Amino acid sequence: MTITIIGLGPGDPRHLTREAWELLSAAEEVWLRTAHHPTVAGLPDRVTIHAFDALYESAADFGEVYAAIARQVLRLGQRPQGVVYAVPGHPLVGESTVQQVLEGAREAGLDVCIVEGVSFVEPILTALEVDALEGLQIHDGIALASLHHPPLNPDLPAIVGQVYSQRVASDLKLTLMNQYPDDHPVALIHAAGTSGERVVHLPLYELDRQEVAHLTSLYVPPLEPVSSFEGLQETVAHLRGPDGCPWDQKQTHESLREGLLEETYEVVAAIDAGDLDGLREELGDLLLQIILQAQIATEEGDFQMPAVIAAIDAKLKRRHPHVWGNAVVNNERELLAQWEHLKHEERGEQSSLLDGVPALLPALQQAHTYGERVARVGFDWPRLEGVAGLVAAGLAAARVREELVELDEARTPEEVEAELGDLLFSIANWARHLGVDPETALRRANARFARRFRGLEALARQRGLDLAQMSLGEMDALWEEVKTASAAGSQ
C-alpha cells in the first residue's frame, strides 16, 4: 500500500521528468488534484485519468477542498494497489494537499513516494533572469492576501504564487502597500514555462487592474537602498563588530540611557510640531537606540531581537482576546476592565494597579497615568458625558480649589512642598476629566511662553531697549503687544 505523489511540472509536458513519465506510463490510473493544467494534455494515452475538480464546486473554501482531496487520496492509498496522485509543479511547492497526505500517511502507517517535478519557480527565474540564491523569497499569494502586513524582507526579491483571481490580486496589493511604495515596480508572470508565457511589468498600484488566471504569479523586486529591519540590524552589528566604529563598540546599556530618552523626546517633539518628515527621521533615531540595546544584549548572551519581538507579539495577542480569541467587549469601559484584569493575571495576586508605571516618567505625566489606572476600578469621580460629565469635572475643579487653600495655609517649606505637590496632582486629575493630557498641555504652554518671550526680546532689540534696565510694567506692556500680534497672526 503506497501513495505515489508525482509533480507534473509548471505546464509544458516537456518539463515532466523522466522518472515521472516512466511512472505515469506504467500506471493504470492517475488521480489529479485538478485537470485544469496544461501538462494533462500530454500525459500517456493509455492511463485512466481521474480528477478532484468536482470538489471545488461543492466545498465552501479551498481549505475544505484540500482537506477533502487529502482524505480521498489517503483512502485510495489504502487499497492493495495504492494510488498515484499527481499535482501541478513540484509536490512540495505550494501544495497543501500533499502536506496533509504526508501527515495522514504517517498516522496510518502508509508509505509515500514523492516524485519531484519542476515547480513554477524555475521558469519564472528564467523569464526574469533572476538568481534564486540572491535571497529569493517564495510566498503563497492567497496566504499573503489574507494578511495586513507582508512577512517579506523588502531588501530581497520575492515570488508570489497563486495570484489566480482579481480578488486575490486586490487584497494582495493592499497587503504589499503596507510595506512597499504604491508605485513600486512589480511584474506579473502568466503561464510561466508554457508556450503562452507572458511577463507584464507594472507599478504595484495597478496590480488588480490586470487580467490574472490560475497560472499567474507575481515578482516583487527589492527596495533600494537598505530598507529592512534585518538590514538595519546588520548595519548596527557591523558598527559594533571588530572592524566597526570605536564609539559604537564601547557603548553599554547604561551609556545609551540618556540618548534613548533624548530620542524619545525628539519623537514627541516632531509629533507635537506636526512635522511628518521630522517624525520619520526621529523614529529612525529611536529605532537605532532599540537595536543597539538588543545588539549589546546579543553580544553578552542575554537575549536576542527575536525574543524581544516574540514577547511583545505574544503580549499583544494575549491582551486582545476580543481580536485573537472569543472574548466580547461592548464599550471602552469593558475593554479597559478586561485589559486591567489580564495585566493583573500576568503580574500575580500581589501586584498593584500602579505597577508598570515608569518611575522616570515626567512627574505630571506620571500623575495623569496614576489617575487613569485607579479610575479603572472606580477610584475616581464619575466620568460621564453631558451634564453629568460637567458635574464630575466640577468636582475635580473643586478639589483643585481645596488644594489652593491648603497651599495658602502651609507654613513650613516641607508643608509648602507637600501641598504644592497635592495641587499639581489635583490639576492633573482635573485635566483628565476635561479630556486634556496635562503633559502635552504644559509642553505646549512652555512652547508658547518661549515663543512669546523671544518675541518680547526681539521687540526690545528693535526699540533699543535693555530688558535688564526695564521695569516689570514696561516689560509687561511689551508682552501684551507680542500676545496681541501672535493672536492676530493666528487668525
Task: Characterise the protein shown here.
By secondary structure, the protein is of the alpha/beta class. It has five domains: 2-119, 3-Layer(aba) Sandwich (Cobalt-precorrin-4 Transmethylase, domain 1); 122-220, 2-Layer Sandwich (Methyltransferase, Cobalt-precorrin-4 Transmethylase, Domain 2), CATH 3.30.950; 229-304, Helix Hairpins (Orthogonal Bundle), CATH 1.10.287.1080; 352-436, Orthogonal Bundle (Helix Hairpins), CATH 1.10.287.1080; 440-489, no CATH class. 53% of the residues lie in helices and 10% in strands. The protein has 19 helices and ten strands. The protein has helices at residues 18-26, 53-58, 62-77, 96-108, 121-128, 141-145, 166-176, 229-240, 246-249, 257-273, 276-299, 305-318, 321-324, 332-347, 363-375, 386-409, 413-433, 438-462, 472-489; strands at 2-7, 29-32, 48-51, 83-87, 111-115, 137-140, 158-161, 185-190, 198-203, 216-220. The strands form two sheets. It has a five-stranded parallel sheet, sandwiched between helices. Strands 6-7-10-8-9 form a five-stranded mixed sheet. Helix 8 (229-240) crosses helix 11 (276-299), helix 16 (386-409) packs antiparallel against helix 17 and helix 18 crosses helix 19 (472-489). The longest helix is centred in the C-terminal third of the chain and has 25 residues, at 438-462. It starts with a strand and ends with a helix. The relative contact order is 0.05. Residues 384-389 have low confidence and may be disordered.
